[in-house]
Design a protein that fits this description.
heterodimer, A: Translation Initiation Factor IF3, 4-stranded mixed beta sheet, 4 strands, B: alpha/beta, FAD/NAD(P)-binding domain, 6-stranded mixed beta sheet, 10 helices, 24 strands
Chain lengths: 78, 413
């Protein structure tokens, strides 16, 4: 059960989802990825990505222009 | 004497070294400056041409030039890769002969490379149109044999260079089979780990209708974990499977292996780089440009080009005693061919969102023009054209100055 911080602040195209995908490849079920981003599109994208990949958004917090999305990895096959 | 080391002789390294050599020719002749490029490659390849080799049967040799013929007088080509870049102590060590070269400034331009080790089975199953002219020619040989079945193209993993190229491959495959009157027998599928056909919604909104119009299937959010070449099956991290008959995927990329474990690189070997003046984080006299960086932008030739211009101009200004300094704007200009002589561009900067550019024949011709001027541009030719084309995005003036040079921390290897 590891927690990984992915700092995507300042990224635009191709966006924080690229950094999330990189972290996801190394993660295991039960791990939490904390994604920091300034691209407002990350909120909808992270939610949609989790729905499609069977992972879970634990929280989405926006403070001082920085969006923090906590994602629990639970969609990987056993 | 100022020693400038350029690690890597790709587009970024060449444009940087040649631009500097042009501007500082008197200093080089008088022995005040020395520029060395370190690269063990014999050839330099025009990488955007790989698609035409793989999907149109273009001669792979037409994409190649001898690297030695692409450096201007005043630049020394050391025909070896580096096994170490010690930024603190300011020296590089060459891979084969183990020679040590000291430097005052270093520019890391080692690019990126495919990393098949991340996805078991991929290297055995894949026909790689993205990594070399020779591999693309092999992919075309395979393509010519396809008469029916399911052809899967797209993105096997991230990051990868030239973001539009997987989409281009889908459109060019469609064109190939239409022209061969085999399109009804061949299903073309585009696979991506992203949520949409292109990661950016503006670009996606332009190209997704083309996918539908051409009957190209899009499968999104597919995180490829492995490939079973025997069963011809793609397996996702979530356990989904997708059968294929022929595979043309872009593998995930990684930075140069020599940087893994260095404090100035991240865990995948990408160099931690300032997004504006491109110095290596915490090192004012080391720079990184092109694919080798961890910058939050596409890995593509135009970025390497504009970054090389920024770093070269800053060094020239400083040596000439000028206070002018320049910053990279994050300008993207990635062409995306949509087939049948049409193309769009992915254009934006750090501050400007991606523009909406409809595919057109004019855009396609712009892409072709770039190919015509590419070799000259590596030597600093047509820079006036790039400067005019990119306008205020070419670079941005800044007042930011770097601190005075300090002596190397330690003198011994």
């Amino acid at each position: 059960m590891a927690k990984t911080l992915v700092d995507s602040r300042g990224t635009a195209c191709p966006g924080p989802i690229t950094d999330l995908l990189r972290a996801y490849r190394k993660a295991s079920n039960g791990d939490v990825i904390e994604l920091l981003a300034t691209d407002p599109g990350v909120k909808a994208d992270a939610k949609a990505w989790c729905q499609r990949t069977n992972n879970e958004v634990l929280s989405t917090v926006e403070k001082n222009g920085v969006i923090t999305v906590e994602i629990k990895i639970m969609g990987k096959k056993g | 004497m100022k020693n400038v080391a350029v690690v890597g002789g790709g587009a970024g390294g060449l444009i940087f070294a040649n631009t500097l050599a042009k501007e500082m020719s008197e200093d080089i002749q008088s022995g005040k400056m020395k520029i060395r490029i370190f690269d063990g490659s014999i050839y330099h390849e025009f990488q955007p041409g790989y698609l035409a080799v793989a999907f149109r049967g273009r001669d792979p040799e037409s994409l190649r030039r001898y690297l030695s013929g692409l450096v201007l007088p005043g630049v020394e080509l050391v025909p070896e890769n580096c096994s170490k870049v010690d930024i603190d102590n300011r020296f590089v060590v060459t891979e084969k002969t183990g020679k040590k070269f000291e430097f005052d400034e270093v520019v890391i331009a080692t690019g990126s490379k495919p990393d098949y080790s991340q996805i078991p089975g991929l290297s055995q199953a894949n026909h790689d149109f993205h990594s070399s002219a020779r591999a693309s020619a092999d992919a075309y040989k395979r393509l010519q044999k396809v008469r029916w079945g399911k052809v899967v193209t797209g993105i096997a993993g991230v990051p990868y260079k030239c973001p539009p190229s997987p989409n281009e491959s889908a459109f060019m495959l469609d064109e190939f089979f239409v022209r061969r009157k085999l399109r009804n027998e061949v299903k073309v599928t585009f696979l991506t780990p992203y949520l949409r056909s292109y990661s950016n919604e503006t670009v996606n909104s332009i190209i997704e209708p083309i996918y539908k119009e051409r009957n190209i299937e899009i499968i999104t959010s597919f995180n490829l974990e492995s490939v079973d070449p025997e069963k011809e099956l793609l397996v996702s991290m979530e356990g989904d499977t997708l059968p294929y008959d022929t595979l043309f995927l872009v593998p995930p990329h990684t930075g140069a292996a020599i940087f893994k474990g260095e404090e100035y690189a991240d865990s995948d070997g990408w160099i931690k780089t300032d997004k504006y003046d491109l110095h290596v984080t915490d090192h004012d006299y080391a720079f990184a440009i092109g694919d080798a960086t961890n910058l939050p932008i596409s890995k593509a030739g135009v970025e390497a080009h504009l970054e090389a211009i920024v770093v070269a101009n800053n060094i020239v200004s400083e040596m000439n005693g000028s206070s002018d300094r320049y910053e990279f704007t994050g300008r993207l200009q990635c062409s995306m061919e949509t087939g049948f002589h049409q193309a769009t561009f992915v254009v934006g900067t750090y501050d400007k969102p991606i523009e909406r550019i409809q595919p057109s024949f004019y855009n396609y011709m712009q892409k072709k023009l770039m190919e015509r001027i590419y070799w000259a541009s590596l030597k600093g030719g047509y820079e006036w054209l790039f400067r005019w084309h990119f306008g205020e995005d070419y670079y941005r003036k800044t007042t930011r100055q770097r601190p005075p040079a300090q002596s190397p921390k330690v003198q011994n290897i």
